[in-house]
Amino acid sequence: MKPDVDIVMQGFLGTLLMDIAPHLNAEYSVGNVSIMGLMLFMASEEYDRAADIRVAENNEMRALFAHAAGIVEDAALKAKLAAAAATTDGSLRVRTLNEGNAALAGLLIELQEHAETSKASWAAGLEARIWDWLVASTERRKLPLPSFG
Amino acid sequence: MEELAPRIAAYLAQRMPAASNIEVSGVSRIHGGASRETFRLRASWQEGGKPVSRALILRRDPVASLIETERDLEYNAYRAFHPTGLPVPEPLYLETDLSWLDRPFFVMEQIENCQAGSAFNAEPYGAHAQKIGHQFWSHLGHIAAADPDKIGFSANMEPVAPEVCWKRELDKWEQVIDEDELTPQPVARAAIRWLRRNPPPPSPKISVVHGDYRTGNFLFDGEGNIRAILDWEMCHLGDPLEDVAWAADPLWAYEQLDRPGGMIHRDEAFRIWEEASGLKIDPVRLRWWEIFNSLKGLAIWISAGKEYQEGANRDPVLGFSSWYCTDVHNRVLARRLAEISKEART
């Protein structure tokens, strides 16, 4: 599909702010157009990277669960971790990847809570690894704002 | 918007029996507090044989909003603080009868020839940053110093004891996340667990908490004078450090940790607040409220995302705050809690 979707969305941002907004009389409408323009800019970035981020996140969480399944003592949690580690993404459609991401994130919450309250020798290391992953994940998902300078 | 004009005029006529020939013009919706529909308007009338004209703001309950609040909370805050000299608009009428404008609303003075800074600008106040910063933190100190009973703020306000005010707020916002999250939130859940395991020391006093005191929620004039502190929808009684931490939250003005809200240096800001409030900033309590406030922010943005996704409110600002502000607060909280977690384990 040409022109590229991200190029089109960024073009629309320019049209909204430079061509359409100045011709609007209602302050509320101008504000809405500006917000929509910013969101088009963010969506242009997300369009390009969405599948890549989700596939990476899902695979990293599975690797983390495979590691954790080998060290946690709780049998029920161990089984859940092993099962989740063995899953795969059924499709590269973003909605499908999101569903898998949500299921894995739910288990990550359970694992992190378990590590936080454990006195076992592995707990500090696992907790640190989870935090390192969460920090990296939130950095990777950082949304851009356009520069008007 | 003009279809509202005759209905507003009819309402004002009922509230102002001494006025005649009331006309309402220039009704225009503006962005101003995402929990209410805000309209700017001008009312003109005859009174005592003389023409009178006044610029007004009307805030009407929406069908669904970013923040679910009672409109009388905000109105009563204006009524409590207006006589104290704190710059707030004069509140005029609170109306809960749905027959006038379909939903409850209130009317207040419009502060003219002013602007609000944007939280999405690294320099929201330009050359006035220093002057505005001094006033911003001083006013917040005065809010903390005010006696909630004496100024009438406590009336109809749920009381709270110093040792449990943190828990009340945390319970409230955790419930919002429980009810509104559309996807699991690992960072928010970790924050909630940390906050419960590490409660703050009790506040030495219970103060008025504005609840949303920040860049963008006050008006200033061309000389850099703060003329109106707005958006009291989330005001309550509690620990005054809750407001300090929210005002200094990294979300406002591009995550500038040392210059909260894009105004003055954090150390100077806190010194001014301490001087104006007569209170000391306890770093342990402040840290708790800083983490709490980033979580509260997440709860608000998560809730906004649900409203938009489910079609209850398709205001673009709800979609934007759910995307952008969730992104910022997740990053802020993850970095902060990762540090704390690793320190605690060593």
Structural descriptors:
A: 149 residues; mainly alpha; 0% strand; elongated; B: 346 residues; alpha+beta; Phosphorylase Kinase, domain 1; Aminoglycoside 3'-phosphotransferase, Chain: A, domain 2; 2 domains; 5-stranded antiparallel beta sheet; two-stranded antiparallel sheet; 10 helices; 43% helix
Could you walk me through the main structural features you see in this protein, from its secondary elements to its overall organization?
- The complex is a heterodimer of chains A (149) and B (346).
- Chain A has 149 residues and is mainly α.
- Chain A contains five helices and no strands.
- Chain A has one domain.
- In chain A, helix 3 runs antiparallel to helix 4.
- The longest helix of chain A has 43 residues.
- Chain A is elongated, with a radius of gyration of 21 Å.
- Chain B folds into two domains: 106 residues, Phosphorylase Kinase, domain 1, CATH 3.30.200.20; 220 residues, Aminoglycoside phosphotransferase (APH), C-terminal lobe (Aminoglycoside 3'-phosphotransferase, Chain: A, domain 2), CATH 3.90.1200.10.
- In chain B, 43% of the residues lie in helices and 16% in strands.
- Chain B has ten helices and nine strands.
- In chain B, helix 4 packs parallel to helix 8, helix 5 runs antiparallel to helix 6 and helix 6 runs antiparallel to helix 9.
- The termini of chain B are far apart.
- The model of chain B has no long low-confidence stretch (mean pLDDT 94).
- Chains A and B meet through helix 2, helix 4 and helix 5 of A and strand 1, helix 6 and helix 10 of B.
